[in-house]
Amino acid sequence: MIRLSSPGFAIYPRFQNNHFVKSQKSTFLPAQIGSRRRNFTGIRSETGGDGFDSVAYESERLSLDAAAMEDMAETAKKEMESDTDSDPKAWKWVIRKKMWDLMEARNYSMNPRPVHHRIPNFIGASAAAGKLAELEAFRKANVVKVNPDSPQKQIRFLTLSGDKKLLTPQPRLRTGFFSVLESGLLKPETINEACTSVGVAKYGRAIGLDEKIKVDLIVIGSVAVNPQTGARLGKGEGFAELEYGMLRYMGAIDDSTPVVTTVHDCQLVDDIPLEKLAIHDVPVDIICTPTRVIFTNTPIPKPQGIYWDKLSPEKLQQIRILRELKKRLEKEIGRKLPTGPAEKLPPRAGRKRR
């Protein structure tokens, strides 16, 4: 077992010299990002055709993602400078930073680089996707929800090429909720493009909270995950948890819906303390690495929805679909739902409008 500079942070080694060795109630407060939103649906090609300007869309997406990562870097710095005993989120940033630093230093990740504030596009992601595709849960699934990050692109491809429906969130929930893609509605030559953010926007069908859909398998990205407990850390924006909570509201998933993650072997850690996890943290049932499959038998309860009493009004204001859901629930129950404490979001960098 390899240990990093800080005591208590361990990874499970199944690799050497960058090559893989064959295996022998609650708190809910997602980390914050600045709101730099524009209407992607307004991007249209001036050249005609299908009316979708892929270049403009991708340029805008990359710009907004870069801005979001700048904000997350500021948030991480602020959290790590606080007292890890008193700040309920600081310890997560410590683990994330160590993992990002490790993967950068040892070149365990492909582009985009650097890996900081991303779900790392780890070397061997396609091999891990192959192991996931061999799972009975995947083979029997009709609808698979997959995160939009780079290391899970092959999983999105295997989902569509396997005649399954792909459910994937719109980028950072900026413009809506989820998009559904069906291989039967795609030309064979467009399936690979449909696995990208541009392709999802181009070929996907946007859905809302009223969509009647049953999700058979959830795939999420991770920065670090404990193979013994299924405890997982994402990149700190909280979208996997928000998406999970909204799918629970829709009745699309329940406690029995398997949650799977794919990671590099170095991303397996043993120092995510169960007692510090919040009720919104989504545990994983299965971990697929390039070298093995791990069934965690996680003891961690899965979230039952959105925890409004801890969700700040600033975060709520950033995401339209969340505001829609809260308004709908308040109408159903005939009273106002609680609101979490206000907080100061990271400052926004200036941007010129095109």
Automatic annotation (TrEMBL):
Q: Where is this region: Disordered?
A: 332-354
Name the domain of life this protein comes from: Eukaryota
SUPFAM superfamilies with a match to the protein in the record:
NagB/RpiA/CoA transferase-like
- One Gene Ontology cellular component annotation held by this UniProt entry: cytoplasm
Q: Which PANTHER family match?
A: 5-FORMYLTETRAHYDROFOLATE CYCLO-LIGASE-RELATED, METHENYLTETRAHYDROFOLATE SYNTHASE DOMAIN-CONTAINING PROTEIN
What is this protein identified as?
A: 5-formyltetrahydrofolate cyclo-ligase
Natural source organism: Arabis nemorensis
